[in-house]
Amino acid sequence: MTRVAFRRLLALMPLCLVVAATGIASAFYVAPAKEGDTAGQSLIVNREMVVLTMVGSSAAWNNAMAWGGDAQGSFLCHDVPPGFTTVVGRFRRPTDLLLTLTTPEGDVWTAGPGERNRDGAAHARLTATGPNTVRVEWEDQPGGGDSDYNDCVVDLSITPAR
Predict the structure, then answer these.
(1) Is 142 within 8 Å of 34 (Cβ atoms)?
(2) What is the per-residue pLDDT across 123-162, written as a single tens digit (0 to 9) for each?
(3) Other C-beta atoms within 10 Å of 7: how many?
(4) Contact 102, 63 (CB under 8 A)
(5) Which of 148, 80, 75, 149 is nearest to 111 (CA)?
(6) For the domain that residue 45 is a member of, what is the CATH number?
(7) Minimal CA–CA distance to 153: which of 61, 72, 53, 74?
(8) What is the pLDDT of residue 13?
(9) 69 found inside a domain
(10) Is residue 43 part of a domain?
(11) Coil, strand, or helix at residue 15?
(12) N- to C-terminal Cα distance for the chain?
């Protein structure tokens, strides 16, 4: 087994423990950020339905959050109330869920490692908050800004697709 494969296996251990403890099987996987980073995680979904719920937005700007998938869409973070819910999509094969945040100044930030962004910084922090929920917290300023990750916050509910 290679070091990379072993590290991926270790990263899956908390998810495996949650599944074993709850009896709820999940196929989604939150890939860890680079060592020492608090942001930059990727979200891989497989044979799952993803529903987004708005938590809140503390940004000075009215950023646009967008996604691909079966139900491509977007919304302005200040224009939807907490609790607003929409379907992101149904993913039938392993898919790196690419979420984006676009500022009014035209900066487009993509969730995942910083290499995905023109400034090299990670702009989204993903945290598994339950066996079927991932919280996505955005930083909208270039270079990591103030690193508050509260500029647009959503929860993703991830359940088996039928």
Answers:
(1) no
(2) 999 999 999 999 999 999 999 888 899 999 999 999 998 7
(3) 12
(4) yes
(5) 149
(6) 2.60.120
(7) 53
(8) 37
(9) yes
(10) yes
(11) helix
(12) 34
